[in-house]
Design brief:
CATH topology: TIM Barrel
Number of domains: 1
Number of strands: 8
Largest sheet: 8 strands, parallel
Number of helices: 7
Shape: globular
Helix content: 25-40%
Distance between the termini: 8 Å
CATH architecture: Alpha-Beta Barrel
Length: 224
Amino acid sequence: MQIAPSILTADFCELGKLMEELVSEGIDWIHLDVMDGNWVINKTITFGPSLVHSIRQKLGPEIFIDCHLMITNAEDTWEQYVDAGVNLVIFHIEAVSDAGTLIDNLHSRGCQAGIVLNPDTPASEVLPFLTKLDLVLVMSVVPGKGGQSFMPEMKSKIYDFRLAINNQIESGGKSTKLMIDGGIKHHNVALVKSWGIDVAVIGSGIINDNGTVADNLKEITSAM
């Protein structure tokens, strides 16, 4: 299972130093949470294409960057994030009107396409698009709402996706990746790995005041 650090809990004044630390510890996938202060519950505004572009310039072409768009207008602004240099755009099934067209538009620009679904959204909302998706992200907390605990009840939804993806691959179809995000730390990282997750997004479990990035990553990888 691959670890994709989220920079949401970082000190943005120290982003350059943080990126260097993550890369030096072998991280090659960065997860960017884009919130518009409208669609997410707690009205948090994070960052936009300009900062994404700066991160790409800092990291160079070798590091894989995804952006999780928690915004109301993904269908109108997705191209700004592609132009900023992301490899993968992940949009909410709950926030778009025509997911199929958005997937096609992303692929037409050479960008990977992913769909994310909230904890209360059933897998059936996303499964019809699975054959075209590069990634499915299952949220194990409610996006944008702080102070939440990991939701172990997402296991059944993840199993639904894992079975569908495995069947798709066995039939010669796309090897869609399965990602989880929300409350993942050293004490439950082995659990989500056992569910068949390909990529785990980890934020405060890596970037916090209780230890260095290197120490936290070591604790997480040892627990896997």
